[in-house]
Amino acid sequence: MDRHLEIPYERHDRVRRLIDAIRYCLESISLSFDGWNEPRIRGPGTYFAIVAGRSITDFADPMGDNRWPVDGSREVLADLDAFYEAAQPVALENDGAVVVSVDGVVQEQMVRFRDHPHEGDGYADWMGTRHMSALDTSLRDPVVATLTLSQETGRVTVFRDGEYDSIEHDDLASRWREG
């Protein structure tokens, strides 16, 4: 395979805007929930995967009846308010990952990604199964990025190629809240 012919989606402007839009949506969902410090209370939690390939059937399975509400929001960047309105109940009521293609189209069927063996000790102490899966899934060739919202802490994390950038709930939007 000639690497010169590959499309660098991770540096593609529209894909970066797509990742940012999903991240900001997850941050907004986290900030809108005020029970993060309550014992035995679980907040909204979710998992997105942005993929560049034609199919994920080699490493994902349908997650039962869990569906993204495509009637309310089929494409992330088309209407960010509609995307947020669709994401909020999904984060509260559904398990599984939401799959988004690099063109921003959201797939209706939510999935469970199969384990991806990797070498190294890339898991942080705070990572639960959703985050470990997102880190592993980010290592797969057709996956550009994965994003999670922790249902235990409200932390928002972006995973790319086994690396991650994570922001704890109390630090979300801190530069806008200061002052």
Brief sketch in words of this structure:
It is built from 4 helices and 7 strands.
Describe this structure in words.
- The structure is a single chain.
- The longest helix is centred in the N-terminal third of the chain and has 20 residues, at 13-32.
- With 179 residues, the chain is an alpha+beta fold.
- The protein contains 4 helices and 7 strands.
- A hairpin with a 6-residue loop joins strand 5 (143-149) and strand 6.
- The protein is globular and about 50 Å long.
- It comes from Natronococcus pandeyae.
- Residues 12-170 form the DAC domain.
- InterPro entries: DNA_integrity_DisA_N_sf (IPR036888), DNA_integrity_scan_DisA_N (IPR003390).
- This is DAC domain-containing protein.
Provide tags for this entry.
179 residues; alpha+beta; YojJ-like (1; five-stranded mixed beta sheet; two-stranded antiparallel ribbon; 7 strands; 26% helix; globular; DAC domain-containing protein; DNA_integrity_DisA_N_sf; DNA_integrity_scan_DisA_N
